[in-house]
Design a protein that fits this description.
Elements lengths: L1 E2 L10 H8 L12 H14 L3 E5 L2 H12 L23 H13 L5 E4 L2 H8 L3 H5 L4 E5 L10 E5 L1 H13 L8 H13 L4 H16 L4 E2 L9 E6 L4 H11 L1 E2 L1 E2 L4 E5 L6 H15 L1
Parallel strand pairs: 1-8, 3-4
Antiparallel strand pairs: 2-5, 4-5, 6-7, 7-10, 9-10
Helix pairs in contact: 1-8, 2-8, 3-7, 9-11
Length: 284
Amino acid sequence: MIDLRSDTITKPTSAMRTAMCEAEVGDAVYGEDPVVNALEARTAELLGKEAAIFMPSGTMTNQVALRSHTEPGDEIVIDENAHNRGGGSVWPMERVTEIAALAKERGLAMHLDGARLWNAAVATGVPEKDWAAHFDTVSVCFSKGLGAPVGSALAGTAECVKRTRRFMKQFGGGMRQAGIIAAGALYALEHHRERLADDHANANLLAEGLAGLPGIELDASTVETNIVLIRLREMDPMDFMFRAHGAGVFVLPSGRDTVRAVTSMAVGRDDVLRAVEIIEGLLK
């Protein structure tokens, strides 16, 4: 099986499992878990923020961030189009700077859902903290390309993070001996960030292999990170997905004429080449 559904399918490496098994723990709600504290400090350092807080999921970090910036009756400005349909493209720094300046001019707080900020940093060579500098709060995920089993973090000013701890508990995010899972995230931060370049290279390899196949519309030059959007000229995406699954390649529909493939540490170069062969056979 070649699983290209998402980078969330990654599993802890043996070294990560060892780090988790050997993690010293304490009560994280009381601020006494040393590994959670170390993870939060390291995350804040990488993002150039004063503090960070570890939570179970990115859904929670985003909701807690919005709660920290608002009061009942406030309004939130978001784009009508979900960025997850952007195919892993990276927003130009010039555009981010422009929007941030406009928000600051109008006294608006800015939050970045940085679920794949690690990928953007590797793809562009621009450090995470340079992206984060334009935002009041930033959430990041440890369980996608980095390969940790669970967890996200929210970073911001020390005052903001202190305030969000109460909101996190209200959302059900208070965890006790969380060092066991925090150890996986900390290991991923220190050992798996640079290897994201391998995922990007494999995504480009996949795109280049599929681009010339009949029945597929794909410009390989548009692939910037680890996500490939494959537009089908004739075949229905659901039909394609089921046929691909039957042949051992797992992908997901992403629109009425598109399927999505995502590379990760669970997929090697040979897997990608084999996936191209299988898909080519399906299209004949």
